[in-house]
Amino acid sequence: MLSSTYAIALAAMLASAPVIARPVLHSDMARPATIFGKHQSTCSANLVSCSDSITDADSCCVETPGGQLVQVQFWDYKPSEGPADSWTIHGLWPDKLVLCLIRRTGGGYQENCDPSRAYHSITDVLKSNGKSDLVDYMKQFWVSNDESAEKFWEHEWSTHGTCMSTIAPACLASDAPQGLDAAYYFQRAVDTFKSLPTYTSLSAAGITPSTSKTYTLSELTHAGYIPAFDCKAKAISTVTYYYNLQGTVIDGTMMPFDAPKAGSCPSSGIKYPPKSDDKKSDGSMSTKASGVA
Q1: Which among 18, 112, 117, 133 has most CB atoms closer than 10 A?
Q2: Is residue 156 annotated as a catalytic residue, yes or no?
């Protein structure tokens, strides 16, 4: 039965998801420990975001005030973006609808938290921090169908990355290179994406792109940790995975949990179209139209 097979596949995938290796700072050299500032000297590794125990915790040591993070992936099929056998990255950000924000701050959602850090060439920022390999990966798996990849990355960083409290400049050493905060953010987002091979897990359950076959929501979500699937015209467009974070964006552990709300896909008749051969940069299913920021 598809649902039980998918349950096994996705449960196995998510069981390993929390074990995300600490990002490698430079591919060719080790940076001095002083760049970690507060992270190495005063932070407890046991702090978990959005828990009652962190009310007075240092925001350099645990993500706050939100703290529940979402990793969103696109299935852009017409026009298509990214490899035919892979979903692509939308971003990683604090979710605006989760109970953590409501309980601890009375509601609200932070965006564009520090305009002074709205870098205008993410490629240059990452390369200057030894992340050329990361840029190459992002060019393939972190793409938009309505704007350039560079503009997309700039938006994700300025809108969401600058709101990650544990990589704020005050949390890093005074001699940390410019853009190191963004390097940490993009590395964490990509590492999280790599731990969630949605296409492979669905395929292992017999759920593959088709021009004629449809699936039920229970077939997609009957698993250990349940993500939220969003649809457009009954066709899958995005999947959202939810996490708390133990520790920091730099070297913490992602802790998955069930989506607190269902996505927009119907209970049945869900289409999973194959990616078309029609690729262009100004596609009809834009990041704005997808319903996520």
Answers
A1: 117
A2: yes
Told to judge if 160 belongs to the known catalytic residues of this protein, a careful annotator would answer: yes
222 is catalytic: no
Of 63, 156, 219, 222, the active-site residue reads 156
**pLDDT tens digits, 114-153:** 999 999 999 999 999 999 999 999 999 999 988 999 999 9
Nearest to 257 by CA among 245, 248, 247, 244: 244
- Which of 205, 165, 285 minimizes the C-alpha distance to 9? 205
Going by pLDDT thresholds of 50, 70 and 90, the confidence category of residue 279 is low
Q: Let me know: does 196 contact 71? Beta carbons within 8 Å.
A: yes
Indicate the Cα dihedral angle 250, 251, 254, 255, nearest 10°: -130
Would you put residue 291 in left (φ > 0), alpha (ψ -120 to 50) or beta? left
**Residue in 39, 63, 81, 90 annotated catalytic:** 90
What digits encode the pLDDT tens for the residues 221-258? 865 689 999 999 999 999 999 999 999 999 999 999 99
The residue annotated as part of the active site, out of 81, 160, 219, 222, is 160
**Share of the chain residues as helix, strand and coil, in percent rounded to the nearest 5:** 35, 15, 50
Pairing, β 253-257 against β 235-246: antiparallel
| Backbone dihedral angles phi then psi of residue 118, each to the nearest 5 degrees | -80, 80
Token output for 185: 């953010």
Determine contact, residues 159/93, Cβ cutoff 8 Å.
yes
Provide DSSP, 107-160: S----S--GGG--S-HHHHHHHTT-HHHHHHHHHHS--SSS-HHHHHHHHHHHT
